[in-house]
Automatic annotation (TrEMBL), chains A, B:
EC numbers, comma separated: 2.3.1.274
Catalytic reactions of this protein: a fatty acyl-[ACP] + phosphate = an acyl phosphate + holo-[ACP]
Family label: Belongs to the PlsX family.
Protein's gene: plsX
Subunit comment: Homodimer. Probably interacts with PlsY.
Task of the protein: Catalyzes the reversible formation of acyl-phosphate (acyl-PO(4)) from acyl-[acyl-carrier-protein] (acyl-ACP). This enzyme utilizes acyl-ACP as fatty acyl donor, but not acyl-CoA.
Single GO MF descriptor: glycerol-3-phosphate O-acyltransferase activity
Pathway: Lipid metabolism; phospholipid metabolism
Descriptive protein name: Phosphate acyltransferase
SUPFAM superfamilies tied to this protein: Isocitrate/Isopropylmalate dehydrogenase-like (SSF53659)
Subcellular location: Cytoplasm
Amino acid sequence: MKTIAIDAMGGENAPKAIIDAVNKAKKKMTNTKFILFGNEDEIFKFLKKEEMGQQIEVVNTTEVITDSDEPVKAIRRKKDSSMVVAARYVKEKKADALLSLGNTGALLACGIFIVGRIKGVDRPGLMPTMPSEKGDQGFNIIDVGANAQSKPEYLIQWAEMANFYAEKIRNVKNPKVALLNNGAESDKGDPLHQQAYEMLAKTDLNFIGNIEGNEVMTGKADVIVTDGFTGNAALKSIEGMASVLLHMLKDSLLNNGLKTKIGAALAKPALNSLKKRFDTARHGGAVLLGIDAPVVKTHGRSDERPIYYTLLQIDKMLDQHLVEILRERFSKSN
Amino acid sequence: MKTIAIDAMGGENAPKAIIDAVNKAKKKMTNTKFILFGNEDEIFKFLKKEEMGQQIEVVNTTEVITDSDEPVKAIRRKKDSSMVVAARYVKEKKADALLSLGNTGALLACGIFIVGRIKGVDRPGLMPTMPSEKGDQGFNIIDVGANAQSKPEYLIQWAEMANFYAEKIRNVKNPKVALLNNGAESDKGDPLHQQAYEMLAKTDLNFIGNIEGNEVMTGKADVIVTDGFTGNAALKSIEGMASVLLHMLKDSLLNNGLKTKIGAALAKPALNSLKKRFDTARHGGAVLLGIDAPVVKTHGRSDERPIYYTLLQIDKMLDQHLVEILRERFSKSN
């Protein structure tokens, strides 16, 4: 049986949304156990004892890491927090994977300092799966902020790990791997990106060269490699732009008189289908690749649905033995 | 009389769109002369001799720098190209400012190597004015790609120059200046951004601290400072996301049956008003700040309208003596 350790106290809708997602997921993931870490009084407000069965366990914890906590300090001081205790269960092999909606920095710290890195991986990278213009398939982008400073070697390792993820979890054949850079030509960028380009070209990856920011969302690449600082700025800029545009669109449609309102009502199914095509939930959460177990962050604002998909994603990572594959790969090269 | 040197051969719609814009602008800018550089046979296909009057002059050139030319080589080899000859006119004080829709890298090279830097400015930065969610006012972001590698001192100079631009050209009182970083706290980022933060906090600027990618388009800051690599990725990601979303929106509205089509037709004025609120043309082109004359790049795909606004923008930069103010400022500090 697989076991997922779940920080039940992280995120804006905790613990209810998390419990709802687990109750839904357990029916599909019949060979998986879910351990919920958190304040048991809070948890049992939403979890009925008769729902627990063999698949759900609750571990009472007395502290919570908040978004304003300084990550490394928090995991040292709040030793009985839901996130830290969940991470310890993974470290001690009492669970196979870790899910949290809480403080991203603290989850990174839990991954690195409690669960630990895969041997041979220099630095873990944070990797979401994003929807693209092309639709269903989406793409992976790594690193989007686990590292403020990067070396070319990190980028190569991230590319290799994300390539395995795209193949095994998203079923992409021979994933197209690209480097986010400030121009198409091979000599573009600063020394970090020039060197990363050269090194990527020498790997066995299906490296298609540089792509620029404006191509990120087109689906041209299945895996986009970037340093954590640039990746963070690019991803957040994309999210910000999408949010501003959709907000302005809504505002335009609602505040331009009756005729527009009627038009908006008639066009609503189309607007909803647009939303569906741009579904960020379906691919699950952002994976901290390079950690010695699946460690996944779902957005703090998530309701039940993205959490449910993240549970499916983790289940697939366990079924496909992704971490074992990465362990094997990096034990050879280092 | 002010004189603007115009590369009439750059961009997809050259020379027609450029000539149309000049013909429109000359009526408003009655104290300005426009010198068009390019193949005169081409130019006189669209420019009637009787339209020229006192305000338009044509200088015949025999070469054109294309987008695929390597910038520095191109400006060395194509000495009789429209862009290079126009830049030389500015250097020789036969013109006060330079406008091109051509190869951005070559225009940067013309600015740096032919026109020259303002004394005391280490590196020029490329700075567009972008529309924001807040509407009319927009914001400046610098550098968006003139420099692949940056030092903290460059960022401080860019912030100061952009601040003058926001004050004098966009009439923003006490512009709010922010640093694009990977978190809100003052210690966020790599050493480059940590140091830039410290230095910005010590200036007289109205420095409001770090902003993240998702806040770029909100209008929270009037001036956003960033290193050229990150700025390039963020800006292009924003443009790419906007283009993908609008494309998908259009597709959804047109390909979802008759009811949706009717709805879209009814809502069209609202959708157009959205487009207007997000008008990237009205603020003109991207300025190469730090060059010893206004050097402005307008998008290669521009039709008449953005070029017209760029001419107004350049006129205002000349009227407000922006370059003289920067010269004065940087002669003191260095």
